Amino acid sequence: MKAADIVRSRGHVVPSFVDIATGRRIPWDGRHNTISFDATHAMALAFGGDSSLIPNKIGIIYGSTQSTDFATVGRSQSWTDLVHEMQDKHADVQVQPFSHSPSFLPITRGGSSSASAVSSSSASAVSSSPEESPAQEAESPSSTQYPGWAVTFHAHSDSCTPGAADTASSGSMIFTTGMYIFQAVLLNETRGKYTILARVSLANNGVYYTKPENFELALDWTIKFF
Fold this sequence. Notes:
This protein is mainly beta. It contains 3 helices and 11 strands; from the N terminus they run ββββαβαββαββββ. The strands form 2 sheets. Strands 1, 2, 3, 7, 8 and 11 form a 6-stranded antiparallel β-sheet that branches. The chain has a 5-stranded antiparallel β-sheet with strand order 4-10-9-5-6. The longest helix has 11 residues, at 37-47. It is globular.
């Protein structure tokens, strides 16, 4: 197989606080996600005509206690492990459907197009692997311009839906004002079974934001394919 035959996927998450009533938005810095091993299964099934594991939900991990030692996000992920981790951190996860249908956009990679926007809020290609940077990508000999596609999933929290994990330490607490925002997961939910397809830290220089009054957390989650 030639290097040019390899299909690469990369993820980028742009969080923001949004006032649903007024549309006012307070953006955060974008950050890369980590795509799970289970996502490769979902992609293989989709190529074969089976859409049973495609993304259909986003989970927002939150808690009432500041925590700076959430696990480093890796590719080996499972819902069971996430629930155990949240139990230890007095955390829960609010699972939300997409707020509207995913959006699609052709994109280019490499050269002057390496910063080609996939949306107004997502400005550069980022790696699903923490050790690979956009700068390294642009310098690669194989990074001449070629087309790809991006899909962006959109979801936002609410202040009334209880957590989905219902751990003993969380008691299905509501994601409301003052709750700390830890991480997020891109999910497939099928008949109550959750599969984690990607996961991202929502820390900002080691600090977790809290949810402001009258604002919800919105996520634009983009996966790029080249």
